[in-house]
């Protein structure tokens, strides 16, 4: 299943427009906020697919049957760029536990790269719904590697992948390697550069959110 915001009429498209705009990007606080707001939007959409139960809630004037989540999801992200998107999800799923993964592109002298994963901090994921957030789904290699590592360690009930911008190549790679995952995407772009940056994309989400790395 793929949910593509760009195919809908939604205020979320305004957030994506501002994330892409090279002039608005100069305000790193607004960039982080737009990424956070997009995460909140995806949380609402994902929440419609989760399991609920009816619970009687006592009000000052009586009892009301209310629909409540059976279980909070676990919110995972790949450091550092994914933090604002994850925070947006956490604003809605405010009782959720979180998972953090350190993964990055290790570039060879030839210009090729491999994905290096150094660190995972996670709660128990057995029987849990996992939402993995990363702003950019370019080649899809880091996303697949991180998700497969967690799947190998735990019996995850359901996997959702959230990204602000994806490439067609990245989507194909994820669907081929994680066929049961549900994808929630802000937009899908057709091209990538020789260095595997999405075009038109929005640039380096981590640098735009937190400053250029050395």
From TrEMBL:
Matching InterPro entries: PRTase-like (IPR029057), PRTase_dom (IPR000836), PyrR_bifunctional (IPR050137)
Protein name as annotated: Uracil phosphoribosyltransferase
Gene that specifies this protein: upp
Keyword Protease attributed: no
EC number: 2.4.2.9
Superkingdom of the organism of origin: Bacteria
Alphabetical UniProt keywords: Glycosyltransferase, Transferase
Record's signal peptide: none
High-level lineage: Bacteria, Pseudomonadati, Bacteroidota, Sphingobacteriia, Sphingobacteriales
UniProt keyword DNA repair, yes or no: no
């Amino acid at each position: 299943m793929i949910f593509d915001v760009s195919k809908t009429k939604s205020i979320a498209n305004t957030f994506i427009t501002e994330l892409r705009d090279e002039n608005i990007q100069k305000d790193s606080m607004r960039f982080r906020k737009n990424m956070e707001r997009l995460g909140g939007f995806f949380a609402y959409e994902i929440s419609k697919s989760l399991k609920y139960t009816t619970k009687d809630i006592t009000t000052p004037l009586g009892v009301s049957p209310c629909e409540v989540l059976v279980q909070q999801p676990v919110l995972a992200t790949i450091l550092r760029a994914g933090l604002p998107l994850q925070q947006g999800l956490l604003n809605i799923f405010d009782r959720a536990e979180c998972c953090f993964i350190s993964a990055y592109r290790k570039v060879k002298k030839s210009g090729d790269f491999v994905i290096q994963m150094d660190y995972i901090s996670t709660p128990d994921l057995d029987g849990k719904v996992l939402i993995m957030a990363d702003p950019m789904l370019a080649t899809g290699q880091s996303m697949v590697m991180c998700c497969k590592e967690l799947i190998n360690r735990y019996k995850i009930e359901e996997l959702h992948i959230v990204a602000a911008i994806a490439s067609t190549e990245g989507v194909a790679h994820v669907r081929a390697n994680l066929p049961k995952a549900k994808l929630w995407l802000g937009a899908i772009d057709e091209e990538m550069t020789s260095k595997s940056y999405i075009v038109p994309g929005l640039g380096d989400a981590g640098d735009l959110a937190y400053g250029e790395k050395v």
